[in-house]
Amino acid sequence: MDALFLKLLNMSIAASWLIVAVILLRLLLKKAPKGMRCVLWTLVALRLLCPFSLESAWSLVPSTETLPPTLISGSSPSFNINTGVGVIDAPANEYPGAHYFEGVSVPANNGSRLMTVLGWVWLAGLAAMLLHASVSYLRLRRRVGAALPLGDKIWLCDAVETPFILGLLKPRVYLPSDIGEEQISYVIAHERAHLKRRDHWWKPLGFLIMAIHWFNPLVWLAYILLCRDIELACDERVIREMGLADKKAYSDALLSYSLPRPVAVACPLAFGEVGAKERIKAVLNYKKPAFWLVAAAVAACAVAAVCFLTDPKEQDLSFLNYKNLASLAYQSGVLAVRQDGIAGYVDGQAFGAFLDTAAWREKRMTSPLELSADVTIIFNDGLELRFYESEPALAMVVSNGEWRYYNMRNTQYEAITELLEAAGVTGKVLSLNDVIILSQKGEELSWQDFDQYAYTETGSGLYIRLYEINPLFSLWIGGSGPTRKPIYIRLTVNTEPESYIDIRTESVTDFISAHQNDVPAEYGWQSECYVLLIIHPRLFSMKRRSAVFKRWIAKKTETRSGFRFYDRAFAHVRGLRFYDIRTDLIPSFF
Asked: Is the pLDDT score of 23 beyond 70?
């Protein structure tokens, strides 16, 4: 019951947007054929009855799930509404939080229980309305039981005061016994127009829909307007070819049988049922609508169907959507960058603005390309945006092992490199000498002391920064955040994660000396002495630097084993800003 009522409630709210749109269109199309109004109400009926809908980029429905399914699943006991309108959602969702007392626990399945109670209330209301309609119908059948036939489906009855149609499968037109001869032809023409239009089906269907959505006042308003529009459309069909004298006589008949008070909603189609004054004005002022007005009404119905019968496309909230990366960039002060192997930063606001204006299109790929990124923007651990100098029209988003490619304009790669240069990309990487100098501050060390160095954010609980120093050492800082004092500042051996010191309280030089021979085995380096070689990224591209470096190694070494060693070592460290080379391979350099 809870799931059923929640679904119905969301359907009713979504249809309310269409009801408002139809009410506005009725005003704009006041001189259009009245039958087009009934077409618009047909769209409302479809929206209220169909539990599913197609998705469209042109949908104007803000939200199809104002109350999310998590409300009854137990995972979210609070009422977090999502109407799609921020000015409504924000205060509505903030109010419970502002009036919630700390320490008060929310009962399990609270939302489900509430929806179940409301569901039974809804069912009771539905039963009451259907019972009322049934009793009204049976009473009316009893009243016309003594009616006498006058002609084809036409009956005279002493117990009725106004003409009406009764019956679904075998409808009959009932007329008052004292109806005047000058009025009977107009009344019969009107009721037969109802039968041709099948209004004796549509009105009961409208009442059934209103009974299902009895809790929505907009649906009640829609039903009242539907009844008026049915009568106006029927009048228009009858008087279409009449002259002014016949229109006046028809209006006199309407006035004679207009009901002194509104009839019950379960009442059948009655001649003078609703809006006699409005109907008489429409009859006397009727003019055949121009073709352009008919075309505009048809177009309005088509637009309303496309915009309000369809659901908005489900938003891609994953970080594989580059637009979501723009929001993440705005929230970040700076973003870590690797450009041609050199680490640094870029301003988050500047890069977020770039992504906001980018008009990329998703590129369907069955498998990732074997390309090495020349520019990598690092949002957090496992989330990167990659660009390629060899494929300047290609961008790749990588999120925790998943990936997605985008096509962009060829000029945007150049724009990205210019942005990185203008927005503060730096090649400053933390070195062991920097660690030794900073460690002298002891307990006074803070996050800000390390802001000038390249780092990667990681961790799911604590706020953690990783500073890559070289293949042997890295520095880890963890804590509640940059505004609080770090919990730890650890210099760690990469090959032995359990080997670390807190540089604020322990000797950095002793730790480095104790582990300087712990060279990673996969690098194949056995010498104790290494040299740091930096090739600035502004001088050459990655490919160009690779070629220059290989030629330089070839000149400085006489054995091919040294050249093969370079290839293997370079493959491991090309993502960093430095290249470690065995000094015994390049003795002539020193």
From this structure: yes
